[in-house]
UniProtKB/TrEMBL annotation:
It holds the Pfam family Bet_v_1. PANTHER family: MLP-LIKE PROTEIN 423. It comes from the Eukaryota. SUPFAM superfamilies: Bet v1-like (SSF55961). InterPro entries: Bet_v_I/MLP, MLP-like_ligand-binding, START-like_dom_sf. This is Bet v I/Major latex protein domain-containing protein. GO terms for biological process: defense response. Residues 4-116 form the Bet v I/Major latex protein domain.
Length: 116
């Protein structure tokens, strides 16, 4: 579905439940990386899930990093909104533009997969 994600493992809990700990293995900027996340919130009625990064490469540059995915359905169309919240470790750390580009490209790959 998406060549940017190499593997996904669940360490604690069950898929799709709050408190579950998941590791994502992915390619970012041409390098293999890992992000260990915990699912902080799920709102099925509003089609929203929030993840907090608790380990891995992302935390080498950021004190905190979390993201929320929200899907809004209008007829046959779905609008996906990603919200990234982060705190840099210092002023020299760049804003996560490359992660935003990664997420955009991953979303496009998933859309292409579902349209085929």
């Amino acid at each position: 579905m998406c060549d940017k994600i190499q593997n996904v493992d669940i360490h604690e809990g069950e898929w799709g439940t709050v408190g579950s700990v998941i590791s994502w293995y992915f390619i970012h900027d041409g390098k293999e990386k890992v992000a260990k996340d915990i699912i902080e919130a799920i709102d099925e009625e509003n089609k929203m899930v929030k993840f907090k990064v608790i380990g891995g490469d992302i935390l080498e540059e950021y004190k905190s990093f979390s993201f929320t995915i929200h899907v809004e359905t209008k007829g046959e169309n779905n609008l996906v909104t990603w919200i990234i919240e982060y705190e840099k470790k210092n002023a020299n750390v760049p804003d996560p533009h490359t992660y935003m580009e990664f997420i955009l490209n991953m979303s496009k790959d998933i859309e292409t997969h579902h349209l085929n």
